[in-house]
Design brief:
single chain, about 190 residues, alpha/beta, 4-stranded parallel sheet, two-stranded antiparallel sheet, globular
Length: about 190
């Protein structure tokens, strides 16, 4: 069993991090975290504003940096969803992280993916049908090469065929009400 917390990072403050560290220690488990940041401040705030419409970047970025710095055993994945309007901003984000964390970027797993159609489209299929077109694939590979030059760990497979693990057996997402979903993109839906 390997628990994974997928979060937008807004609530991952010092108190919650301390509580999660205690749970890890007491239960002898390593928790993996995935935080999504879709670019630098302007792009992140446009794509992922707070519920009240306010800026999310400063909170999420600060919590992400603190999580990485405090991590001895945790595995931290930084996911960025790509589209034409934010790919340069994502590149700049990883440069900023490198500047702020230095050699500690070796604690970060990178997850980049083009934005795909709504996950509901995948419920009727047994395999994902979306795949980056040639231009998207080349831009993704160019970005991964840049990240490699900066010293980031690059995943074995950099081209994915869908938005999540909906086609992966035995992968489920559970919300705080213990409702089970096949994909984190379906959280809080009736699917």
């Amino acid at each position: 069993y390997s628990p994974m917390v997928i979060t937008n990072g807004t609530l991952l403050d010092d108190a919650l991090s301390k509580e999660l560290n205690e749970i890890e220690r007491d239960c002898n488990v390593v928790t993996r975290f995935q935080i999504t940041i879709d670019g630098t401040k302007e792009a992140q705030d446009r794509r992922r504003p707070l519920k009240n419409g306010g800026s999310s970047f400063d909170i999420v970025y600060s919590n992400f940096i603190k999580l990485v710095r405090s991590s001895n055993t945790k595995k931290v994945t930084l996911r960025s969803n790509l589209s034409e309007d934010n790919i340069e901003s994502v590149k700049n984000l990883f440069g900023k992280i490198k500047k702020d964390l230095g050699s500690q970027i070796d604690k970060i797993d990178v997850g980049l993916s083009w934005t795909y159609p709504c996950q509901n489209n995948y419920l009727t299929n047994t395999t994902c049908v979306s795949f980056p077109n040639k231009d998207e694939a080349l831009k993704l590979l160019e970005l991964y090469n840049y990240l490699k030059e900066l010293g980031y760990k690059i995943p074995f497979s950099v081209l994915t065929t869908g938005p999540c693990g909906i086609t992966v057996p035995y992968q489920y997402s559970i919300d705080e009400s213990l409702k089970v979903y096949k994909c984190p993109g379906l959280l809080y839906t009736d699917e």
